[in-house]
Amino acid sequence: MGPREQLVRATNEGAEAARQGAHVTVCPYAAGDLRRTAWIRGYAKNRQLPTA
Fold first, then answer.
1. Distance CA 33, CA 48 (A)
2. Rounded CA gap, 35 and 37, in Å?
């Protein structure tokens, strides 16, 4: 799998984690790994924001 595919997969994994209600700390990628950034972007795009 190439670098682009790895980033797309990480983004999709982060989005799925957010939809399932997982905490952001469950990210499987280490700090400094570009896939971690992609995972967090996917997570942030799909997370549920608290309502007032």
1. 25
2. 5
Concatenated DSSP letters for 1-52? Answer: --HHHHHHHHHHHHHHHHHTT--GGG--SPTT-HHHHHHHHHHHHHPPPPP-
The answer to pTM > 0.90 is no
Q: Report helix angle 34-46 to 3-19, nearest 10.
A: 40
pLDDT 10s digits, 20-51 = 999 999 999 999 999 999 999 999 999 887 77
CB-CB neighbours of 44 under 10 Å? 12
Question: Rounded to whole angstroms, how far apart are CA atoms 26 and 18?
Answer: 10
